[in-house]
């Protein structure tokens, strides 16, 4: 089977968060935030988690699943070792590299595993022991480590009570304090590398599934801190040359304020307009093959319709 030809591209994904916590710090639970720019930050790990959970819930083969730390029934291995143990049973005729490529998240984001191999020397072959060799597949799809929001945000302190006891001696629950984001337009920036795509076995159908997962996972999130979020716009800037790219794809979209609002005072789409001037300008460059887009907001869709290189994504 020959590898599919994947074109180089960049992804820009916009979604809004209203009185929620788009991406809490794992140690404090507080929203990631840049004190200098006053912008909300969303990590690549958070975005990949959305996508992986979406795939897992729909029966796709996923390598990094939420409960991957569970101990394997066949051994005391945990984490990726336990996951590989399960996958080897499912794909007994494949080697470790082939098994990893059965997982859609590995084809997209890459993966690491240890493959047990027979030792080479005669003396070692007489032993039942096997040595381990690392398998490392670099993911062709990567997102920025931290993605700043388009608008500045003033975080709001929020106190809440819980009915769960805070200790064995305290059965009255507890009071917690956290900060929430009143409103932010989160911009996620990603890349698809055609060279890494060959090594990971990435397929065009994988990319289409990922774009759908990106859009729908935000809209379907139902946890307490993530439920008040909505997808706004998805763009894939496709290049005609796999060795070329434009500068500053994450700076192509700006916001124009309305109703005398400040950036920190934005609370809905009614308070600003998107400025796509630079995005439309770069679409005329020779290195741009096409700009694929998807939105369910009529006035945003109308901006891109009937423009020569803009093509609507069919999710």
Characteristic key phrases:
single chain, alpha+beta, 315 residues
Structure description:
The structure is a single chain. With 315 residues, this protein is an alpha+beta fold. The chain folds into 2 domains: 9-60 and 142-312, no CATH class; 79-138, no CATH class. The chain has 9 helices and 14 strands. The strands form 4 sheets. Strands 1, 6, 8, 9, 10, 13 and 14 form a 7-stranded mixed beta sheet that branches. The chain has a 3-stranded antiparallel beta sheet with strand order 2-3-7. The longest helix has 17 residues, at 204-220. The two termini are 27 Å apart. Residues 68-72 have low confidence and may be disordered.
SSE arrangement:
Elements: E1 9-20, E2 33-34, E3 39-43, H1 44-57, H2 79-90, H3 96-100, H4 104-109, E4 110-118, H5 122-125, E5 130-138, E6 141-143, E7 146-152, E8 156-162, E9 174-192, H6 194-200, H7 204-220, E10 229-239, E11 254-257, E12 272-275, H8 277-282, E13 288-294, H9 298-304, E14 310-312
Helix pairs in contact: 1-7
Query: Strand-residue fraction?
Result: 25-35%
What is the 3D form?
globular
Low-confidence stretches: 68-72
Portion in helices: 10-25%
SSE class: alpha+beta
Calculate the mean pLDDT score and round it. 89
Per DSSP E runs of 2 or more residues, the count of β-strands stands at 14
The radius of gyration over CA amounts to: 23 Å
> What are the secondary-structure elements, in order, as H or E?
EEEHHHHEHEEEEEHHEEEHEHE
- Terminal Cα span: 27 Å
The tally of structural domains comes to: 2
What count of helical segments does DSSP give? 9
Summarize the biggest pleated sheet: 7 strands, mixed
